[in-house]
Amino acid sequence: MTDPQQPQPSEEEVRAALEEQLRQLTVDDMLLESAVSLINLGGRKAGVAPGTEPERDLDQVRRAVDAVRALLPLLEQGRHAEQLGPLRDALARLQMAYAQGAGQEQPPTQEPPPEPPSGAPAQEPKQEGGGPAQKSGRLWVPGQ
What we know:
By secondary structure, the protein is mainly alpha-helical. 55% of the residues lie in helices and 0% in strands. It is built from 5 helices and no strands.
């Protein structure tokens, strides 16, 4: 609430104050602020806070996680590199919330595929240690 006895700043004073803020602002500051905003929005879209359940959107959570993960290498090279611990912790919590939410949204169970005929060639065994998406680094896995 504004004090009616305080004079309102003029348009020029407001503009000068904004110009001073822009002079002091760095790209590193904006990258960090963007990452924090994405974490906060992702947490809301995860629907874990009381009252945010109707806003749950796991695709948005996944996109927030991916965006923050894309910003991390830039942040690690910048002036805030020493202060990234809490951001990494928040990102890990958001990834866990996504994984838990995705686990709750299991697709309907399907019947197993039929057995191949006795003369059919055997299928190749599944790869150990993750598939091509995980090996390429494009797939994030909670805790990694």
